[in-house]
Design brief:
This protein is mostly helical. The chain contains 13 helices and no strands. Helix content is 79%, strand content 0%.
């Protein structure tokens, strides 16, 4: 298993290489399948019932939805529609599939974050087909069906497959633990491709005003800081780190994919910037844990 320092270095390396190799954007189609693979392993190793839900996790879900619209309002106020949509796609993203993994490296309550992951991903995925057409200003049945199809493939297909495999082959419950480094590698590949895609877009779209890029970066940084701080407050004394991670570390690869398909590469810079911000914080957290508890 990789050490905390090695994981921190890997995160930063994935970002740097993606920025330096924009040609890799040609493989951006693999992002969808990498996400589905990571989600399959998370769902495979997760047993969840309604009794697993803590009251604070319901509050986290409400905060998750609120931050999507807060990001939309903040971005629209700062820079107009495109920046607003970038803020929405960054803020509405549910808990990341890697959040339980990160919290396990921090030696905190993995079950809490896993339940938050399932609750937010299922709820947000169910609501997005309704919310997205309204946010994009294209309220029609066709867009609803397309978004619903994308969400079903990306989230619910790995969930259904994991449930089926668990039922047919119970020893598969041990696979996520054995393949933790493989899952981390898939996450690094996703980060690399996301950064390569963003780097390619910025190189090709030299006419995009730098002010807009700064506005998107600033809005998403504000959302990220607010999420981690608000989550810590929601978690209280019992689950401060767990709730902070659940609200702050987001499945932005999911909303990045939706932004690329249904909005524009410029809007997709919102979740892309958020990926940078929350992983820089993750890198610092893992570094701190590695220093204090080698």
């Amino acid at each position: 298993m990789l050490s905390g320092f090695a994981r921190t270095a890997a995160i930063l390396t994935a970002f740097i290489l993606g920025a330096l190799i924009p040609q890799a954007h040609a493989a951006a189609g693999a992002i969808q399948w990498l996400i589905m693979g990571m989600l399959f392993l998370v769902f495979l190793g997760t047993t969840w019932t309604f009794q697993s839900i803590h009251r604070s996790q319901v509050v986290l879900l409400a905060a998750n939805l609120l931050m999507g619209f807060a990001g939309l309002a903040l971005g629209w106020t700062v820079g107009g529609r495109e920046v607003g949509l970038a803020g929405f796609f960054a803020g509405i993203a549910p808990t990341a599939a890697a959040a339980p993994v990160i919290i396990s490296f921090m030696r905190r309550n993995v079950a809490y974050v896993t339940a938050a992951f399932l609750l937010t991903n299922v709820a947000v995925s169910a609501l997005l087909p309704v919310l997205l057409p309204w946010v994009l200003g294209e309220i029609d049945a066709t867009l609803f069906r397309r978004v619903a199809g994308s969400v079903a493939l990306l989230i619910f297909a790995p969930m259904a497959l994991a449930l089926l495999v668990r039922r047919l082959h119970p020893p598969s419950l041990a696979w996520p633990g054995r393949l933790r480094d493989v899952s981390f590698g898939a996450w690094m590949a996703t980060l690399f491709l996301v950064m390569a895609n963003a780097s390619h877009f910025l190189r090709m779209q030299s006419d995009v005003p730098r002010l807009v890029l700064v506005q998107i970066a600033a809005v998403t940084l504000t959302i990220c800081v607010t999420n981690f701080a608000l989550g810590r407050w929601i978690g209280g004394r019992a689950y401060p780190a767990e709730a902070s991670q659940s609200l702050g570390q987001k499945n932005t690869s999911f909303t990045l994919y939706l932004a690329l398909v249904y909005a524009s590469p410029l809007v997709a810079l919102g979740p892309t910037c958020y990926i940078l911000w929350h992983n820089l914080w993750n890198s610092w957290q893992l570094h701190r844990v590695h220093r204090t508890r080698p």
